[in-house]
Specification:
alpha/beta; nine-stranded mixed beta sheet
Length: about 290
């Protein structure tokens, strides 16, 4: 039976390797969307820490599942997208989470904004225990800024298949900047929009790839992207970069102190992401299938 036309298929790929402490939260945040036309693709790199046991009860909810040695995160994402068929696409790392209602919001946004190719939101960051710790509150999208500095929150980003088919798949040679390089390509082909809300959460923890690789592999790969796409630097770039990043953090701190709430988040910092989900992330019951 085909799905209603107002529920376009959304393909979400999760690459995973040895994230048993977070993976159930990630998987549940996707399945608890209860989106009726979800294609959830799970690419495990042969985890040895109990990850496969942790998600065994969810296996029949995946449209495609594999657990085998791969060539790394970007290779897993690349191969996952090759299995996908959705009109809307995204990937969610195995330590991050979606916000409640994110997929319905994304589907409706793309339905009512046919000119937009890529959608993302502000960033909400949680710690290893799911406590909110800081935010990026980002300005309206700027191709100039986002081509040069890797500040699009990947865990909140969704795009249409049409731009994916124009610009191409994730480049598996990258270990850190695969999302940045992909988004630079997308910016050459289509229109971006920053939503004034949170569509997901980024997890900060000691073993995160971002923490481990930013100052080494990350810097080198970002420099490669600049060279590959002819992004010219100027003597003002360090100043602009610092102001851009600091503004996102400063606006995030102001937002946290204001007591206000944007959709997809709660007020302030220190709240539990499970609370945002009404306790359902920590439940053991299987999510209801729509």
């Amino acid at each position: 039976m085909s799905m209603p036309s107002n529920f376009p298929r959304i393909s979400v790929v999760t690459p995973c390797y040895n994230h048993v402490q977070y993976i159930r939260w990630t998987v549940r945040s996707v399945l608890l969307q209860r989106y009726p036309n979800l294609e959830y693709i799970f690419m495990d790199g042969g985890s040895t820490d109990g990850t496969q046991d942790a998600i065994a009860r969810y296996r029949d909810r995946f449209s495609y599942y594999v657990s085998e040695k791969d060539k790394g995160q970007s290779d897993a994402i690349h191969r996952g997208f090759l299995q996908s068929t959705g009109e809307i696409m995204a990937y969610l790392n195995s330590d991050d989470m979606l916000a409640p209602g994110a997929l319905y919001y994304v589907a409706e946004f793309f339905r009512t904004h046919p000119d937009v190719d890529v959608l993302y939101s502000h960033r909400c960051t949680v710690d290893a225990a799911n406590k909110s710790i800081w935010y990026w509150i980002l300005p309206q999208h700027s191709n100039y800024l986002m081509r040069r500095w890797d500040l699009i929150p990947q865990e909140t980003t969704f795009w249409r298949r049409r731009i994916f088919e124009k610009a191409g798949n994730i480049d598996p040679q990258y270990r850190f900047a695969m999302d940045y390089e992909l988004f630079v390509r997308f910016m050459l082909e289509g229109k971006f929009h920053r939503a004034d809300r949170f569509l997901g959460s980024f997890r900060q923890h000691d073993n995160a790839k971002t923490s481990q690789l930013l100052e080494t592999v990350g810097k080198d790969e970002i420099a490669q992207v600049w060279q590959k796409y002819g992004l010219k630097s100027s003597r003002l770039d360090p100043v602009v970069s610092m102001r851009f990043f600091n503004a996102a953090m400063r606006n995030g701190a102001r937002y946290a102190a204001s007591g206000k709430m944007l959709p997809g988040g709660l007020a302030g910092i220190g709240w539990d992401y499970n609370e945002l989900w009404g306790g359902m992330l920590n439940e053991t019951r299987l999510p209801v299938v729509s």
